[in-house]
## 1
Amino acid sequence: MAQTNVVVRFDDVTFGYTKENPLLNEASFSVREDAKFTLMGQNGAGKSTLFKLITGEFKADKGKIHLSPSATTATAKQVMAREHLSETVLEYFAHVFDTVPYNIDKQIADILDVVNLSAPLDKKIEDFSGGQQARLLLAYALIQAPDILLLDEPTNNLDRDGIDHLTAFLIMYPKTVLVISHDADFLNSFTEGVLHLDVYTGKVERYDGNYSDVVEEIAARVERDRAKNARLLKTIQDRKDKVNFFAHKGGKMRKLASKLKDEVAEAEENMVGVRRDDRTINDFTIPVQVFKEPMVEITGVKVILNHEPHHADINLVLRRKQHLLIEGPNGIGKSTLLRTLASGQSEDAKIFPGVKVGYYKQDFSGLDFSETAYNSLASMMDQPDNEVIRRTGAQFLLNGDVLATKVGALSEGQKGLLSFARFVLQEPGLLIFDEPTNHINFRHLPVIARAIDKYEGCMIMVSHAHEFVSQMKFDTTLDLSKLIK
């Protein structure tokens, strides 16, 4: 590949938050101009950190990071920064420019059209739904037209129309795109290869081709390497047994033993460093609170159409073992319904007294970011039990080092797994899920779907992940878009 055609190059880059456990360990790779690649790796492997190294927010401990001269970067972040929530749309986008252009209104309107969002410029960011905020985050990066566009889980919270608009834009985008995502259909539609960040070795491997094909190629390679190593181990053990036998003999037998030792050394050198594939959480059960009475009653819903609120009367009572799916496009009021129900702020929806509620918020704002993951789990138990806490944490790939880490320093994927571990210890009677697939490694999703489907308490879910939702049975589906004529 010609040097002038490379826009990003890592040369033996090492980086870590601690010297003992570097996320990147002499990692090397390159990406050419105009390429569109997926960055893949286990939750906590350091994918978002790698983006920050590219933008210069973090500096490498060792090695060199090269960008094309004058190359610009922009990142579509996963979560809206809290300092922007009180700003209007116009104030938010004004941060992009050193000098605000005269036609900023048109530029904002044009880029919002790309992400399929119509928004008044004087509306505050905090008044948008999670899905709409995701579109604003995308638009903020896209309006900069960077040479290197970095997308961190861009389809989280997006409905189908939003994903379709984004996909069409990225297919036509004439510059370099690196994307972190677990949405296979989305990735297959426009990416041309994968950069795999190995959580165990800290190395980055490059694969060219369709995302799904690359995932299969990686799995097949692992199996081939394991099979090769198994054959070599058998050969090594056979030679060692013979060495031990012949070494005690004299003459030619001793020479044969020496030759066999050389064969053992050669076989050991040929052993393949097998890349340990992403670990998947094991099947788990969320215990349920014993509660015989009705748990939830909803008599009305506020539906948002064209940024205007409308009220719809309904009659819905939910009991143990009843699961409700709430549907509708971004911004219609799904998350608002869940939030006001859980907080007791709704006049039309209530949770009956005594019900123990587990609430998965799409931005993880229900977690205390200042406490350790261990204490976060301990807070779910009436009588904290160290052995149970650590065993439950391990079930969700939260080992001792992770449990000692503050929640705010965990990756978004680890925060998601922590939330499910908390439910296991909490034993709720009602589970409320607002986009539970956000940030979760795709390998874990079938396991989580089975656990939710088997949950014997009351459950309410909002999710745009149709493949995930299709793996579960729901007693009732409430489509907010059909409540207002």
Note: The two ends are 58 Å apart (CA to CA).
## 2
Amino acid sequence: MNRLIKVFVISILCFSVAFSNAQNPIENNHQKLPKTSHYVDLTEAAEHSIQAVVHIKTEFKQKNSAWDSYFSGSFWEEFFGMLPYGNTNDYPVQAAGSGVIIAPDGYIITNNHVVEDAEKITVTLNDKREFNATLVGTDAEADLALIKIEETNLPFLTFGNSDLVRIGEWVLAVGNPFNLTSTVTAGIVSAKARNLNIMDESSNIESFIQTDAALNQGNSGGALVNVQGELIGINTAIASGTGYYTGYSFAIPSNIARKVANDLKTYGVVQRAYLGVSIMDITPQKAEELNLKSLEGVVVSLVDENGAARQSGLQEGDVILAINNTKTNSASELREVLMQHSPGETVSVRVLHKGEVYDRNVHLLNRKGTTDIVEQSNATAASVLGASFSDLTKRELSYYRITGGVKVTNIGDGLLRQSGVKKGFVITVINGRIISDTKDLDKFIQNNHDKYLAIEGVYDNGYYKYTYTIQIP
């Protein structure tokens, strides 16, 4: 009898629990979740990475203009890494940053703003050995540079695939900011394809990986690595009003860094591919205006008549949805994909045209509308004047009512910016010589022996002529 009573009581209790769970599914939902904990071991990645990250010290003849304007602003106080040693009015000026060894024979990638205009570059390894470094090449548009030291059998990091980086995954930020051996911080990937407009409105490479790993001054040019110890980004900037870490850091994706490093090593200048279109992000207002059913993709607002897109049938008003099956839901995402390719390569572009989706093969071209290799000598004007240039299209020549000229497409830290020249300025004459195209400009700069340049040209109004006087240091 007692046994029957016990069974009855237990049955009632079990029913009560089951009935309670059925009546309170939300309160008891946590019981259905897997009770597992995933431990992420970052020690091996850290031990491997710190050996390949270096301290970089640079010397300049005088204070770089970047100190005054390029790295300042209400939101962006500076790109971290430009640390002065002593009084900035003294000569020479010294600055510091970090770099990453990417090959055992001494090739090191860093930020352009760490080594730009440096007369002397000194690299200190994690084991305290010091080397003088030579500058292989720079790319101001990507804010990347390649330097080299004469040594072999060095520890190095291999490039990972930044396209596979996922929001929420753990990453390590490794830098050597104070020449005290490498420092490691950890965080997660907070966002991808961030375009912050911190370099130039027309920048082709602003597609940062955002993390919450703590970074401070001097980490610029250091490594962002995944748990496998692969290089997935080059640390470049922090969101701060003081120049010190306050929550978010930003890195150039490794797929862009690898392309830039390989081009600089092979050609001395980046071989940059272009679709030949101007694009806009799709806002709800733009979607309504174009009668689009979703906000996916980017809108083609202008097609260059001599560009790759025009040759493949793309038109104004088309929506680019993806390139090589990689979605392009923002201008920065599209630029990140393109930056990984070279002129002459063919990509598959998924386009929404008048309500129908098509896949078009686009044969990529360079800025000049060809697949020719851009030689390092052709970059002379860019390096001397601190800007990027392009030839004018027939439409632009007609608009400006001129027969030739060179358009300033991107302004970096250099002579043009210091003289007040702005993006969009069209150079037509220098020191009385007519400049018809970029070849003319490069040839003039290469053969120029004058200390002053009188640069004439026009802006978008196409009528009023401007003249800037520039002193060559």
Note: The longest helix spans residues 2-23.
